[in-house]
Amino acid sequence: MKQRVPLTLAAVTAALAAVTGLAALTAPAADGAPAAASGRTAARMPVERSLLVCPAPSTSDIADTVYTALTPGAAAAGGTGSARLLGATKDAKPVLELKEPGKPVGAKASGAEAPALTGTADGFLAPGWSAQQTTVVSVGRTRGLLGVSCTAPGTDFWFPGVSTAKGREDYVHLTNPDDAAAVVDIKMFGPDGAVKTEAGTSENIRVDPKSSKAISLASLAPGAQLADVTAHVTTRAGRVGATAQVGEEGVGSDWLPASVDPAGTLVLPGIPADAASVRLVAFVPGDEDADLRIRLAAASGSITPAGNEQLHVKAGMTASVDLKDVTRGEAGSLVLSPPEGKNPVPVVAAVRVVRGSGAKQDIGFVQAAAPVGARATVADNRLEENATVLALTAASGADAKVRVTASPGTEGGEPASQEVTVKAGATQTLTVAPAGGKGSYALTVETLTGGPVHASRTLTVPRDGTPMFTVQTLSDDRSTVSVPKASQDLSVLTDD
Asked: What is the per-residue pLDDT for 242?
């Protein structure tokens, strides 16, 4: 006699993994669309494993680095999970380990020997797991506050805003979290198109398993003194975490994360209110020129910068425009879109921001970012006055309501939440901190109604009169994945 035995969810998941691959079970579609194009209903399930990578913090012997991590939410009854960051080498020891959702953990490292990190989170600690790396270098050519959110590895990255000019030291950091080697290409595009690189230096760059490599962009094209360049990083084999590190003599240093994938409309959220200089850099990857309308979504609504209403970007060439002190004391977000009557052309973009003046300057970057989606988190927020500023932008024609939750601090405190309505076309800034908090804390933004909402966090840590700062954008934490419902009986026939 044969009996029909229903498959468990784990068995169904294993079967789906065999068909669709692990990536489909660890991240949803980027636009949140149902996984099945055939129209079948898809269920959203929590991811079961998350992977993050962080670049090596600094080459300075006086660098001080803080790592923080959090999984938002609360522990599931009877659930289990693990999450840890460790050096990106074989047999490395954990740098920090997370024990339960909703409570951040932190760790510190000093000097130039702090390694790049890789990490995994499993079980109930996987959905929404987020980590941040923040480094202070007080003096020297690379002085500054360098902050970056650890990211998932990938195969394609755009970095508008890097440079090969004299006085700049720009690197692309590549971290391979896997057990097989990755092979990477780096192409650069300046204001006249593709930049000629030294033979054999920019292609087939091998990144060994469980290792990290920093590539000097100036070394790829000796003699090319280009103020504004777009770097395109792709893999021929494997996957890597990729982040650009920028150092500018006499100004400061910071990380420049990859721009969101090329799109016809872009949002660069949260340019600080006291920005002394804002330089927009854009690039068209395709073969059609782009005309971009430039708007600033400020607290009072959407405005057009006088004299800089539009930017023309030729296909395959990097374009830039100096917007000066465009925010004029009111934090805002840049919105790039096609002018009325023009077709959208996919572009990538970032802005270079300078705060301070004279010898008391620091540099930071805001890249074009995806919306926060259902939920997004940024870690390592500080409790000092004016240290943490969250910027929320509703760039479309609809208001949006969000919930902002501050976790407890790494050394104690109680969480706090606030619901905020962001007006269409405007940017709202706020600070939310845990009650009685000690240590650093995480901020989680959830979209309740309306949207989409774009967000960033500005962290300011003054040093000797210099407003050292860094800006991190927030994007959907991809804590759930679409799993299509079965269209047939998935039970198994067994003999009794």
From this structure: 98
Strands 290-298 and 360-367, bridge-based pairing: unpaired
Q: In Å, what is the CA distance from 131 to each residue of 10, 71, 119, 200, 312?
A: 28, 9, 9, 35, 37
pTM of the model: 0.90
Do 418 and 404 meet the contact criterion of CB atoms below 8 Å apart? yes
Q: Cα dist. 196→157, 163, 193, 320 in Å?
A: 19, 14, 9, 20
The residue type found at 250 is G
Which ranges of 21-55 would DSSP assign to H, the alpha helix? 23-26
Phi, psi of 318 (to 5 degrees): -90, 130
How large a percentage of the chain has pLDDT more than 90? Answer: 82
Mean pLDDT for the stretch of residues 165-175: 97
CA 349 to chain centre: 14
Q: What is the dihedral of CA 23, 27, 32, 38, to 10 degrees?
A: 30
Residue 53 three-state SS: strand
218: left (phi over 0), alpha (psi -120 to 50) or beta: alpha
| 312/54 Cα distance (integer angstroms) | 35
Mean pLDDT, range 461-484, rounded to an integer: 92
Q: Are strands 360-367 and 400-406 parallel, antiparallel or unpaired?
A: unpaired
The residue among 417 and 16 whose pLDDT is bigger is 417
Q: What is the pLDDT of residue 487?
A: 55
pLDDT band per the 50, 70, 90 thresholds, residue 7: very low
Give the Å distances, CA to CA, from 46 to 43, 124, 378, 402, 484.
Answer: 10, 8, 20, 21, 14
Looking at the predicted structure, is the pLDDT value of residue 489 above 70?
no
3-class SS at 321? strand
Q: What's the chain's average pLDDT?
A: 90
C-alpha 109/C-alpha 66 separation (Å) is 7
What is the rounded radius of gyration, in angstroms, for the C-alpha atoms of the chain?
A: 23
Do 176 and 240 meet the contact criterion of CB atoms below 8 Å apart?
yes
Helix, strand and coil percent figures for the chain, each rounded to 5: 5, 50, 45
Could you identify the residue written with the tokens 């420049």? 256
